[in-house]
Amino acid sequence: MNTKILVVDDEVGLQLLMQQRFRRKIQTGEYVFCFATSGQEALTALGSEPDVDVLLLDINMPDMDGLTLLGYLPDLVPTSRAVMVSAYGDLTNVRTAMNRGAFDFVMKPINFQDLELTIEKTARHVGQLREAIRTKAVAELKARFFDNITHEFRTPLSLIIAPTETLLQQPQLDALTHNNLTTIRRNAHNLLQLINQLLDLARLEADGLPVVEVRGDIVSFVNELVALFRDAARQKELSLHVVADPPAGDVLFDADKWGKILTNLLSNAIKFTPAGGHITVTTTLNTGRVRLTVGDTGIGIDAEHLPHIFDRFYQVDSSLTRAYEGSGIGLALAYELSKRLGGTLTVSSLPGHGTTFTLDLPVQAAHGHEPPVNMAWQVSQRLLPDLPAKPILVPTPATELPLLLVVEDNAELLAFLAESLAGFFRVLTAADGEEGLAVARRELPDVVVSDVMMPRLNGYQLTHALKTDPATDHIAVVLLTAQAAPAHRHEGLNLGADDYLDKPFDLDELRLRLRNIVTRQQALRDHFQRQFQPATPVAPSPQPNAFLTKLYTTIDAHLDESDFRAESLAETAAMSLRSLTRKLTTLTGMGPARLIRSYRLRRATELLRAGRPVSETAYLVGFEHPANFATAFKDLYQQTPTEFITAQQLY
Ligand code: ADP
């Protein structure tokens, strides 16, 4: 960065002197000098070169003195700063110049070392000034952008909310429709709130959120606001206390901003406090100030995170296994709002024991005759905490639909998915990865649909656990994720996920993809079954299945042992008989006993074709009695072994 300096002095000799003294800096490009010998000439120069940083102004000049020129500068070059150059002892003029906005002054004869320091200091100031202006301009641009964009969001959201309200008012809605409509309404409101919070933050940054004071009593205001959270607290089995000084009359305060701050603190307290905990809100009135605290007995915040929790988008737990949903906006907004109101917001916390936020805000005494404001309207519905709709239990059809496990920590989405897929699957549900893994191991579903971000065990970990266990590696896994980045997609697919859908997903697409997976599984089953038909040559498997190949090798090794049964096969595969049965049924449509028998008979057809007599073949493939062999053979191939041999000879 170079510094552009305009020297305005009628003493021409000064130009040469400057060029000599600052030769090095001019050579390196740090200083760029231009010169004017009169006030008039300086005005012309500034017209064509408005990017001057520092002006060195002689006070005494013939046509226009430095003081007069100084008066033009704020309009002409508002972000440049002037250093006055004055005759030694001319303090009256220097005082006048400083009062008219000069940044500093130096005396003649010039001490060049001092001048250099003064130029540096002035240039630094100009740099900071311009940076601040630039930052403010960017903030304003951002706020304007947010204004526009939120409007674009609000219109469609209103068009979601309003018709939903109308539909909800219709009589005789069935429970499922009512529940779905409530979900739409609540989530549209959530989105609206998030957008409004983002907009507030952007406006605060651009200094564009005015303080609007109303008249009212703080104690009743806090009481009314806390009352809005009673349902949410009850639902989470939390006690909610208010401790307040006796009402001390009306004051002037910005109820809207106070409401937003308190709402965020209360929502967090409810969110981060497990059932059985306590939340206490205290109000202490002092002259001209109010202290509010919101304390909880919740999970607390580690010391290392405390300094950051008021940062925008900061969340203590940003892992894929985090237990709490959120955006990290609430506290940043609460903090900025308190600052805007001339107050402070601080926090103290003991991990495992609880957290207390302390809000100190100034209030104005209410004199004059402003009518008191009914404050209930100030805290609109949209600020109410998140109460998910009650999930509907999906009746499980008794038919042999494929078995699907949905793993999702958002109770509402879980219920929605379960309901929506119930016509096509028998649906099992689990609220997080760990529960999902347990259910998958126990029930061995055909397909698992799982969220990625979940507490305890995330979707990737669940996929990995399922795909690395021989008992469950055949289960198809579809991941649903909010992270559309290809890297995440690859991670999931790498771990063996069979498919991947980004949120928000299209329900029809999900259904189609699941149907494709199930159809593929069925096609494979048909293929494996066909392998046991003697007439069809064994087609290469579309997906050579290592697990089945290993089983066949094992059966082969024990082919002539009639007591090699399902249990023995499970033992050699190191699986429980139940797991092996479920897995083989999913893969081939046959249980292990039937698989062993089919395999034996399939090998029998090869031996018979090779000319072995029936009775010998029966023993070789593990049948103790040729009669049993003949019956089993006929069952599978609709002909006796003898008929089979005859038929072969005809070809
Ligand atoms: P969000 O709740 O959307 O994640 P916030 O800005 O409201 O965002 O909070 C930021 C983080 O501060 C939260 O993610 C949480 O980790 C922590 N936090 C806030 N309030 C509490 C509380 N009462 N108890 C424990 N942790 C809290």
Please tell me about this protein's structure.
- Helix content is 49%, strand content 16%.
- Strands 2-1-3-4-5 form a 5-stranded parallel beta sheet, sandwiched between helices. A 5-stranded mixed beta sheet has the order 7-9-10-12-11.
- The termini are far apart.
- 33% of the residues are buried.
- Mean pLDDT is 84; it is low at 374-397.
- Bound molecules: adenosine-5'-diphosphate.
- The site of adenosine-5'-diphosphate has 21 residues, from helix 10 and helix 11.
- Residues 264, 268-269, 272, 296, 298-301, 309, 314-316, 326-332, 355 line the site of adenosine-5'-diphosphate (ADP).
Structural class label = alpha/beta
Helix content: 40-55%
Outline type = elongated
Number of helices: 23
Report the major sheet. 5 strands, parallel
Strand fraction: 15-25%
What strand order characterises the main sheet? 2-1-3-4-5
Give the rounded overall mean pLDDT.
84
Please sum up the structure shown.
This protein has 651 residues and is α/β, with parallel strands linked by helices.
